[in-house]
Design a protein that fits this description.
Enolase-like, domain 1; globular; 421 residues; 22 strands; 5-stranded antiparallel sheet; 3 domains; FAD/NAD(P)-binding domain; alpha/beta
Length: 421
């Protein structure tokens, strides 16, 4: 196993896990503030950024050593190097060349996309944000996706002035537009300045500060001042250093081109899994793990297992969280499906009111006739957990008529789901 970075991968070291540690602290502050008029007095409740980062490192620092030790115990040799193909069956690592008599698996994940702007050297990545020793007073995020919104919610609750600059008409484009609009209201009420239809042209260092130059779709330019600028404008497969051409491995901007067995279509000795593979699966941690198991099964037993991506839940860990699983309305319409949409604002529901959340809603798509749940879209407290119930029902083929008859502990967010279908 070869890795150019510390062993453990993106999720454990510089992605999902450390991010959720920061989100947990921000959520605690948010929960107290939401009930400030209803029995809770968060007079001095603030985030100590340095202490939070020390806490985060208790999760991340032990991982590389522990992971390499576990691999060694299993008889797996590890190399801390950059791997490069030199032929269809060989890779070089430093001065060593390894011959694969059976197969080579590419699982390099993704990296931040290149920013085609002047002054990009003054922009940090999400990796860098997760290592900040202190949080500056003003932070700007380029792009309006998962990374920007999650970190914007954390930074704002930690006391920073936050700006998000998104070139599209709507941020979080993979999520239901009505629920995104509600989240935008909540985000702006938090004090985050969200600009849409605003394309960043360049970043200039002015002393210790940063000046961002942007252009709006209406023509006039805009200038934003910040202490820190963070790249949140998407990620791409991390393939540039592999020299795939030498191995005859076909790839595109979407990743290594693979068949349903996750095998390269141009070099059958090569397999790819996770964010670096153009597999049709969304670039999410559970999908990467799933694809890894598919590849392992096919290597051990021959190509007999193929991928299937029904009901994969996705979550934006803002406060409140935004979640989806299955089809959106436009997707279902394009497929010619006949369905009803159950859509309601739930800010007045008990589960939201008791925690002081004023922005929550759902949208659930149910197919007419079959009562099949086609998609579920949630915004609100614990949407990140509740969406898993819909994912389970959809994957197991449980119709809405049966789903709403389930017994749930009450009062819980799960017990709300009966009213959503």
């Amino acid at each position: 196993m070869i890795d150019k970075r510390p062993f453990g991968g993106t999720c454990a070291l510089r992605g999902c896990d450390p991010k959720k540690v920061l989100v947990g602290a921000a959520a605690a502050v948010d929960a107290a503030r939401a009930l400030s008029d209803n029995g809770v007095r968060p007079v001095s409740l603030t985030i100590d950024w340095a202490a939070l980062m020390r806490f985060k490192r208790t999760f991340t620092d032990p991982v590389p050593t522990a992971r390499k030790a576990a691999l060694t115990r299993d008889g797996i040799e590890t190399f801390d190097e950059i791997a490069r193909f030199v032929s269809a069956s060989q890779v070089s690592i430093g001065q060593t060349t390894l011959e694969a008599t059976r197969a080579i698996v590419i699982a390099t994940g993704a990296r931040p996309a290149d920013l085609p702007i002047e002054g990009r050297e003054h922009v940090i990545t999400s990796d860098d944000f997760l290592e900040l020793g202190s949080l500056p007073g003003a932070v700007a995020f380029i792009g309006g996706g998962y990374i920007s919104f999650e970190f914007a919610h954390v930074a704002a609750r930690a006391g920073a002035r936050v700006t998000v600059l998104h070139r599209g008409a709507r941020p979080l484009e993979q999520f239901d537009p009505d629920l995104v609009d509600r989240l935008l209201v909540r985000t702006r009420e938090l004090g985050v300045d969200v600009h849409v239809r605003t394309e960043v042209q360049g970043v200039q260092a002015v002393g210790n500060r940063r000046r961002i130059y942007a252009r709006t779709d209406k023509g006039p330019s805009a200038t934003v001042e910040a202490d820190l600028v963070v790249h949140g404008a998407g990620r791409v497969p991390d393939l540039d250093e592999l020299n795939l051409e030498a191995a005859g491995v076909r790839y595109s901007r979407a990743g290594v081109t693979v068949n349903a067995h996750l095998q390269s279509v141009s070099n059958p000795r090569v397999y790819a899994a996770g964010d670096c593979a153009d597999s049709g699966g969304p670039p999410l941690t559970p999908v990467a793990g799933y694809e890894g198991r598919i590849v392992a099964a096919n290597l051990l037993e021959g190509n007999h297992t193929t991928t299937e991506y029904t009901a994969v839940p996705r979550v934006v860990f803002t406060m409140p969280s935004l979640a989806r699983v299955g089809l959106g309305e436009e997707d279902a319409q394009r497929r010619g499906l006949h369905f009803r949409t159950n859509h309601e604002d739930t800010a007045g529901w008990y589960s939201s009111r008791r925690v002081g959340e004023r922005h929550s809603a759902f949208k659930v798509l149910v197919e007419e006739g079959t009562e099949r749940i086609l998609g579920a879209h949630l915004l609100g407290p614990h949407a990140d957990e509740t969406v898993n119930l819909f994912a389970l029902a959809m994957r197991a083929g449980v119709p809405a008529t049966q789903f709403k008859q389930m017994f749930w502990a009450y009062p819980t967010h799960a017990s709300d789901t009966a009213y959503m279908v």
